[in-house]
Amino acid sequence: MDRDKWFRRVLWYAVIFNLAGACLFAFPSSSIGRLAGLPSPVPQAYSAMLAYFVVLFGGMYAWLALQPNIPRQLVAFAAIGKTGAFLTVLATWHFGQIPGRAVVAAAGDLAFAAIFAGWLLANPKSVPPPN
Questions:
Q1: CA atoms of 88 and 93, how far apart (whole Å)
Q2: What does pTM read for this prediction?
């Protein structure tokens, strides 16, 4: 499998990961939400808004996977978003607000961030020829 197909498959896995995460955030009091270490109860407005943004990022990954040429800027944005999500969970755990298993659940975000960053490094921006 070539690198392009592999990366597009990774993007589709990120879509699935985000949709699963959105379900957890939408229903943090569920047994799976509690297993993932999500705090509960929380106001529905907060959990719904968080689930919405997670779905929005998942939609971006799907859109990227379907593009003939994947825009580097959006992959960089995706890497920043995934890194930020993991660091937010890590900091929240550090301050004792959530259990360590939430960090384990968010490790997927860190893995995707690393893959996205690796893709950016392996596919340097092409330099246009001089005029």
A1: 9
A2: 0.89
